[in-house]
Every structure is written in structure tokens, then in C-alpha cells.
UniProtKB/TrEMBL annotation:
Keywords: DNA-binding, Transcription, Transcription regulation
Protein name: AraC family transcriptional regulator
Domain (HTH araC/xylS-type): residue spans on this chain: 11-113
Gene3D superfamilies membership: Homeodomain-like (1.10.10.60)
Pfam families, alphabetized: HTH_18
Top-level taxonomic group: Bacteria
PROSITE patterns membership: HTH_ARAC_FAMILY_1, HTH_ARAC_FAMILY_2
PANTHER family referenced in this protein's UniProt entry, alphabetically: ARAC-FAMILY TRANSCRIPTIONAL REGULATOR (PTHR43280), HTH-TYPE TRANSCRIPTIONAL REGULATOR EXSA (PTHR43280:SF2)
UniProt source species: Sphingobacterium tenebrionis
Amino acid sequence: MPNHKLTNYQDRVLNYLNQQPYLDPGFSLDTMVKDLKMSRSMISQFFKEYFKQNVLKTINSLRIEAVCKELEQPDFDMNIEELALRCGFSSRASFYRNFSLEKDCTPVEYREQIKSKLL
């Protein structure tokens, strides 16, 4: 029975994340608690079991994924800080730190790598 319950929570959380609410810089675990009507501990436990990392790390990874999709567009022409804000980061420092941790390079270096592959 607990397994069925996890599947129900899993579907709710994953469907919610597919809507990309984390692209809002004001998004937080509290936002998820309110929107999903689930407890903090339940959401945290789900993230640890499903994503193998905590909520914040997962959300930042999803945000970086969104940034990379933008950077990979052939016609990308946006200020990097503007992009960071559009993808849910509220500070430049947090964005650059998380991007470097996730991708092992800066956003500009990542874009240059993509551009060289497009040529």
C-alpha cells in the first residue's frame, strides 16, 4: 500500500514540475507545499528517493537545464543575467555558482561550445 501512495505523490510532484513553476525566482519549497497541499517532509523525502538529492539542488538542476535549452537555441540573443532571472535564479552569484557546479564551465563557455558545434 505505501508503494501505491508513493506513486500517487510521485505523479503529483512530477506533473507539477513539468509545468516548470521553478522558473519563477520566487519559487521555493514552501510554494510546492502550498500548491501541492503536501507536507515539507513528504516532498523532501520524495526528492531524496526519486532524484537522489535534496529539493534545492534538484530545482537548481532543473533551472540549469532550462538555461541550457535556451543557450542551445541557434538564434539565442539575450543577456546572460536576464536569462538567469527568466530561468528562476534571483541572484547572479547563485546562477553562476550553480551553473559551474552543474556544467563544469561558465554559461558563456557553454554557449561557445554549442556555437562551435552548430557551425
